[in-house]
Structures are given as structure tokens and as C-alpha cells.
Amino acid sequence: MKVLIINQAEVHQLLPIDECMEAMAAALTALSHGKAINPLRQVLHLPDRRGLLGIMPGHLEGLNSLGLKVVSVFHNNRGTEHDSHQGAVLVFEAEHGCLQALVDASAITAIRTAAVSGVATRLLAREDAGELAILGSGVQAHAHVNAMLAARSIGRVRVWSPNPEHVQAFARNICEKQAIEATAVNSAREAVKGADIICTATSSREPVLMGEWLAPGVHINAVGSSMPQARELDTNAVAKSRLFVDRRESTINEAGDYLIAKREGTIGDHHIQGELGEILAGQIVGRRSDQEITLFKSLGLAVEDIAAAHLVYQKAVEQGLGTWVEFGGARYVST
To answer: Domain 2-108+302-326 has what CATH class?
Structure first.
């Protein structure tokens, strides 16, 4: 049996943000319709807590595909030659259980996370939203600029992160590659002032976005935290927003932005308005007015990884990309 190995550069070549957004919308709709299986992720922390290994299995009925993402997360890799997220997505077909592809997880994670935020922004941001604030300057921050440009007509971007050198380079990169105005600012508050869309993509364990800064009508994509003990938004920011999620079960078990506000007694489970898939299916209403504040809390789901990796695999086969290797899986019969 042959398996296709698809590296990081090939994933970026094969998975443009607009195509990934369509794949993510389909996967989220399937999940909300009960056409997908997405167990909670398992996390193994190193004893000194400097890194972790996440294990995320899932199945998408419509693609006849199942898979598993295994990814290490070492936030101290930021600023080094190593990605903070490293690993692989394994894609299997669901008839015989044959392994089809081994796909770079760093690129899949970066693109599909931003693509889901792009889907959320199309559903929840005001139609005339054009001022973007990015909190963070890493891989996800870069990916989210691309997704927001695909979701809305963005005219200006303000960026902030705790590292002044990184944020200056990030702003220059946006100006050069996207031909839009991008400004590095000195504080998170300055970045979000007047913003229509805010993306938080930091590794902070403490809030970087405060509710008192939020203007009526803003939409927020919160993507940096995926642990119950960490959050990017303070309780006020969560409480004053209409909260939408990728998946309820994941949110009530893993989302520190939500769980800490709940533990403080400010919100309850009713504060979750619904899943993106339910909006896509017409089961619930997203934004109701130009004045309300909407919040999408992203955690990242296995079905998103599998849908993205499955699309990459199909396109790689069609275009002759990737590297085929003999890997086993065929029954050996002695003669």
C-alpha cells in the first residue's frame, strides 16, 4: 500500500484560504447535523509544562474519511526556527481503513483555523466592516489577515503584540503583500479602538482584550486559547457579547475564555448562542443588528483538520504533488 506524504510548502500551495473556508463551512454544517464524529481532544502535558502533545481523532460521513491529528505545542518556539505547532494529520478512507496520506499539521492548523474565523466573520460581522485589529504577530495572526481579507473588504489593519520588533515586521509584511494600510501600535487598546473586526491570536494566559474597549457592532474572533486555564478576553468582554462557537461540547470543556467567566458567576451555559454550523444550516440567527457585539470562540476541531487534509490529499493526487511511499497495510499471505 502506498501513502502520500504532503509537506508544509505543498499544503500552502494546495490550500488557498477561500477554498479552505468552503471546506470548513461544509464540515461545520455536517457536525451540527450529526454527520460527523468529533471526540474531545486528549492532551498530554510534559511534567514541566513547557509543551504538550494533542491527539484529535474524527470522522466525516460525507467525505467517507476519518483521521487523526497529532500535534505538539511548544509556545517557547516562537522566535526560533521551529513552529510552535508541529505534527501530522493522518487521513484514512472509511471503507477498508487504509491510510491514504500523512499531511503536515503546522500548515493545516494555521490555514484551517483562520478559515473557520473567516466563516464566522462572514456570518457574524457587519456587512460594512472594514477596520481590522489583530492582537498577536505569529503564524495565526498572519493567517487571519488573509482570512479576514477573504471575508470582508478590509481597508485598514492595526496590529499589536508584546514583541515590538515582531509587530513592526508584521505590519510591514501586510503592507508589502496585501497592499493595504497596516499600522503597528503600542497597545492592544489602541489597536482595537474603532475596529469593526478584532482577532485575538496570542499565546497569553491572561486577558489581552477588555470588554470596556469594545465598541457597539464589533465582531471578535478569539483563537489563541484552547485550554480551560487560559483566556485572551476578560469576563466583561465575554459577557457583553453574543457568543457563538465551533462546538458546544468542546467549549464547555476546553474554552478558558468561557469557563473562567462562568466560574466567576457572570454567565451560564445559556450564554452560548449556538454553533456556526447551526447558523449555516439556518437553524439559528447570527447577527441581529448593527449594534450588537458578536464573539466567535474558536477551539479547533478534528473534523476541520480532516476536511482540510482530505481536500489537500485530493488536490495533491490530481496535480501530482507530494511523495508516495510504500507503507504496508496490504495483507501478507505466505506461499
So the answer is: alpha beta
**pTM beyond cutoff 0.90:** yes
Residues in contact with 334: Cβ distance below 8 Å, sequence separation at least 6, in sequence order: none
Between strands 52-60 and 65-73, the pairing is antiparallel
Q: Which architecture, in CATH terms, is 125-297?
A: 3-Layer(aba) Sandwich (3.40)
Same fold across 2-108+302-326 and 125-297 = no
Enumerate the domain spans of the chain.
2-108+302-326, 125-297
Q: How far is CA 236 from the centre of its chain?
A: 23
Q: Taking the C-alpha atoms of 128, 130, 136 and 139 in order, what is their torsion angle to the nearest 10 degrees?
A: 90
Element (H, E) at 237: helix 235-239
Task: Name, in order, each residue with C-beta under 8 angstroms of 128's C-beta and a sequence gap of 6 or more.
Answer: 196
Phi, psi of 20, rounded to the nearest 5 degrees: -65, -40
Q: Which of 231, 198, 230, 229 is nearest to 213 (CA)?
A: 198
8-state DSSP, 272: E
Question: pLDDT tens per residue, the chain (335 residues)?
Answer: 899 999 999 999 999 999 999 999 999 999 999 999 999 999 999 999 899 999 999 999 999 999 999 999 897 887 788 888 899 999 999 999 999 999 999 999 999 999 999 999 999 999 999 999 999 998 899 999 999 999 999 999 999 998 888 899 999 999 988 889 999 999 999 999 999 999 999 989 999 999 999 999 999 999 998 889 999 999 999 999 999 999 999 999 999 999 999 999 999 999 999 999 999 999 999 999 999 999 999 999 999 999 999 999 999 999 999 999 998 776 665 55
**Grid cell digits, residue 145:** 489577515
